[in-house]
Amino acid sequence: MLRKIYNIFEILIILLISLGFALGMDALVGWTFIYAVIFAILFSVFVMFGIMIFHSSRPDADVNSELLYKGETLTLTLSVNNKTFVPVPDTEFLLETPQGLVPEAELKDTVSITAATRRTEQEPSAERSDGNFKNIVSITTATRRAEKIRINYKAVRWGKSYVGAKRVTLRDFLDLFRFPVRFGNCKSKIFTIRVFPDIPEIPVDSPMLRSITTDLKFDNESEETVENKMFTVGGYPGYTHRDFQPGDPLKRINWKISAKRGKFSVRLDDETESQRQVIVLDSRSGGYDADERAVETTLGIVNALIKLSFRTSVWYCSGGVMNCFEAAESFDIFELQRIFADYEFAGGSDKSGRIPTEEIAARKQGSAVLFITPADVISDAVAEAKEYALRVAAVVCGDCVDAESAETVYNMTEGIND
């Protein structure tokens, strides 16, 4: 706005000087300057109107990928195709400010660019009255040329982001007027970018994981009872086996099989194989950092349980509906990672249920729930679970003020490896 006022002020000064020159010194020269300035203004507006009417200058935007891992680079390509016989001074792209994607400082061009600048301006917006920063990229195109610039973003955070141009405007030669330009039939061109969360490595013998598998799912006395009751058709105990992991009870080692294989092997009875860990990812947000910790903690725990040959039922909320994902094989963790790349937490105003107590009871998935939450309050969810005789162990990833309401609490506010 200040720039436009400055340009208008300059033109008025030129007209006043020319008028004074025409009246006081040389009428021919003075009026010639006045007519030239007026002609320049009319020519500039006429050319811009022609470009607008005949769609002679066409902007476009594209991205190289819509799915990224953290640390990868996203490239946004902005282009202008000028089909006219006159150069187009400035096509301005107002860029969307993505969350979790950091723009690189340098613009990289793929073809010759007459002028390509990027600046940050502070302007009032319709969404916020206190003003916000808007990124603007300008491209100048020569006669019958197509110009492109590339803007690189680095994915630094998990989640859904939006990249592209919210608005495109065409400036006239004297920078007095701005005309809106469309992407075909659309005023904007925004791409939804999904960044995969990391799958942190949790040691299978970590105290947290041993506590989860022991306190919530297994009771050694019940396992011995089941083992004594299990027989095959021939009347002998029937077991399947897996490699010994630190933290496994020594009494579960099958010494004969271990001697034959040359490594320790642990027997798995049918009850152990059929039982599953029920994990619920809270739908309430606790802030961006806490939300990311909650998602990645969920993936890390599920991945570790799969390595220990346990089945896991992961409940998460999508579109206001609780969904259950069954994870049992190593490739399941990557499918869950893809699902969580599109996951969004609800705000504090959402009063929907946080633990699917009725669904867990209907499916007979067990009497214990591992509740992974970034929220600051969980007592309402724990109380609802207790009504259905569900024991809740909470994995706290944010600043929770009532974590003691859960039966067991695991604090992950400092990160998954702390």
Word description of this protein:
The chain is α+β, with helices and mostly antiparallel strands. The longest helix is centred in the N-terminal third of the chain and has 28 residues, at 27-54. The model is unreliable at 106-133, 217-238 and 270-274 (pLDDT under 50). 31% of the residues lie in helices and 32% in strands. The chain is elongated. The chain has 4 domains: 2-53; 56-196, Immunoglobulin-like; 207-218 and 275-411, Rossmann fold, CATH 3.40.50; 220-270, no CATH class. The chain has helices at residues 2-24, 27-54, 207-217, 220-229, 255-261, 270-274, 288-307, 332-340, 357-363, 379-387; strands spanning 57-63, 67-69, 73-82, 88-95, 101-103, 108-109, 115-123, 132-141, 146-155, 159-171, 178-181, 189-196, 240-243, 265-268, 276-281, 311-318, 321-327, 368-373, 391-396, 408-411. It has 10 helices and 20 strands. The strands form 4 sheets. Strands 2, 4, 7, 8, 10, 11 and 12 form a 7-stranded mixed β-sheet that branches. Strands 17-16-15-18-19-20 form a 6-stranded mixed β-sheet, with helices on both faces. Strands 1, 3, 5, 6 and 9 form a 5-stranded antiparallel β-sheet that branches.
